Structure formats: C-alpha cells, structure tokens
C-alpha cells in the first residue's frame, strides 16, 4: 500500500499513502485503503498508549468518505479522543495534498494485558 510513517507519539500519529496503487476501478482512492491507513495509525497509537506488557486490539472501526483523491498522496493524522486504562478511541482525519478532508476514520481499541503466549513468541 506504500504507507509511509511520518510521526508517532501518544498524542499524534501521522502517515501518508500514495494514491497510485490504491485506487478503485474509476480512479478514486478505494474506501478500504482509507480505512487501512486510518486503522493502522489508530492501532499503533493505541498500542503506544497501552505500554509495555499491554496490548491494544481493535473492536470497532468506521469511516466516512467525503472526497475522492485521484492523484498525489493522502495523509492521515491520528489524534486520541479517549485514552483510558481499558479503552482507547482515536480519530484519523485523512486529507489530500491540498489539505482537503477525504475521509474520517474512528477506531476503538480494547486494552488488555499481553497474553502469556504472545510474550514468548
């Protein structure tokens, strides 16, 4: 998908993705590609918040597509809406090269202790 990670902190996670290679048959960025960009940012940010020995797993993701990018790149900026001990909610605003909003993705992650088998894998 060509996703390039640009910034990663608990308060902000940014990545961009080329339009080329992520278009559907009529030339627009595929809605699923927007979701992949958003969910990947939200999941990584939630796991950063969860901390050592903890794991954030997605339990809900939704997206509203409001513009269709056809060239260049799209950039996803992920910010937390809620950072709790057991739930993290992030909003990812995806814009085109002109800064116009193309999609808004929201992901909710459940935070739990890392399973013992995962720690040794």
From TrEMBL:
Entry keywords, A to Z: Hydrolase
* Descriptive protein name: Hotdog fold thioesterase
**GO terms for MF:** 1,4-dihydroxy-2-naphthoyl-CoA thioesterase activity
Entry GO terms, CC: cytosol
Give the family per the record.
Belongs to the thioesterase PaaI family.
Which segments constitute the Thioesterase domain?
27-102
NCBIfam families tied to this protein: unchar_dom_1
What domain of life does the UniProt record list for this protein's source? Answer: Bacteria
């Amino acid at each position: 998908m060509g996703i390039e990670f640009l910034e990663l902190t608990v308060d902000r996670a940014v990545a961009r993705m080329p339009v080329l290679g992520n278009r559907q048959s009529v030339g627009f960025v595929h809605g699923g590609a927007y979701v992949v960009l958003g969910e990947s940012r939200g999941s990584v940010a939630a796991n950063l918040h969860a901390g050592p020995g903890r794991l954030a797993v997605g339990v809900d993701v939704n997206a509203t597509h409001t513009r269709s990018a056809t060239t260049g790149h799209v950039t996803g900026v992920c910010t937390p809406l809620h950072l709790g001990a057991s739930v993290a909610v992030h909003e990812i605003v995806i814009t085109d090269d002109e800064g116009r909003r193309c999609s808004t993705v929201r992901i909710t992650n459940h935070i739990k202790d890392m399973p013992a088998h995962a720690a040794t894998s």
